[in-house]
Amino acid sequence: MKKIFSLLVLMITFLGASKVFAQTVKTETFKVYGNCNMCKKRIEKAVVADGITKADWNVDTKVMTVSYDPTKISNDAIQKKVAGAGHDTEKEKASDSIYAKLPGCCRYDRNGGAIAPTHDHHR
């Protein structure tokens, strides 16, 4: 009986501890402005950070889907990282100096539209 009780206490302790250490992953979406696959690469690379488990930017919809641990990083911090790479988000605007360094095909209308990319620099 004493062994069963000890085993039961051990199992309850283990289960309780595993819940404490379980990570809560949050998945959110937000708008990010850009035009092409070069933008996609830059945007997704910008958010490689501790706490981010997944980042995917859709070129057609301009929507970023990101999964992250909110105890390590916030949505606002993620959007600041994207803006730091030259791409405006729904909450953060990239600085003019960083935006100006983007290749021509990656420059978008900063009022929300796309500028027709030329891709001349790829030749």
Sum up the structure in keywords.
HMA_dom, metal ion binding, alpha+beta, 123 residues, 4 helices, 15% strand, 3-stranded antiparallel beta sheet, elongated, Alpha-Beta Plaits
Write a structural description.
- Keywords: Signal.
- It comes from Chitinophaga sancti.
- Residues 1-22 form the signal peptide.
- Pfam families: HMA.
- The chain is an alpha+beta fold.
- The chain has a single domain, classed as Alpha-Beta Plaits.
- 37% of the residues lie in helices and 15% in strands.
- It is built from 4 helices and 3 strands, in the order H-E-H-E-E-H-H.
- It has helices at 2-21, 37-46, 75-84, 96-100, and strands spanning 26-31, 52-57, 63-68.
- The protein has a 3-stranded antiparallel β-sheet with strand order 1-3-2.
- It is elongated, with a radius of gyration of 21 Å.
Helix content: 25-40%
Most strands sheet: 3 strands, antiparallel
Gap between N and C termini: 79 Å
What is the number of independent domains? 1
Shape: elongated
Tell me what the CATH architecture is: 2-Layer Sandwich
CATH hierarchy class name: Alpha Beta
- The strand line-up of the biggest sheet is 1-3-2
Write down the Rg: 21 Å
Mean pLDDT: 85
Low-confidence stretches: none
SS-derived structural category: alpha+beta
State the order of secondary-structure elements, H for helix, E for strand: HEHEEHH
Helical run tally: 4
What is the third-level CATH name, the topology?
Alpha-Beta Plaits
Number of strands: 3
